[in-house]
Predict the 3D structure of the following.
Amino acid sequence: MGAKKQPSRDRLLEEAEALRLDGEYSEAIAVLEQVLAANPDDTEALEELADNELSLEHFDRAERAATHVLALDVTSSASHYVLGCVASHRDDWKLACTALKEANALSPNTPEILRCLGWALFNAEKETEGMVTLERSLNLESENPLTLCDLGVVYLKSGEPEKAKALLKRALDMDPTSSRARECYEMISKIVEKAKS
């Protein structure tokens, strides 16, 4: 009886992607580590690894993987996106904008990149540009509760509570389990009611 045949690299990458899409991030990382054990410079596996680490909020590990990719391939939009998200979580809005603008230049009209870029721009005190970028993201993907939440918060901070409330209501209707949408909607409802009284 011969040795058991190892799954191919492509098969492992497909398995890791399927796990990530199902929210099984730790399991996906375990599969990707098999690919990287054979080739530590596999950029596709490293991009997937960075994405999964980001989803688990392992920001240092996500940053390491994305930086490794960019040392091998500076045109990796996924890696610029991960670095932008990591910078956003650290409230380094200038760095976030730079990385996410690069990701957007390499992969234009990607709703998730535009969403994160819009949020970063708004927080970097480029309010109008941030709002327009979030609107673009929503136009490309109108059923995204995260974009609706971000845009709702932006409208609230821009002094348009009624518009914010409508967006947050849509987000909550779309994803009733979203704690962010619920918290934002409850907060905005109180503000709108207070303004009416």
Remarks:
- The first helix runs from residue 9 to 21.
- The chain has two domains: 35-141, 142-197.
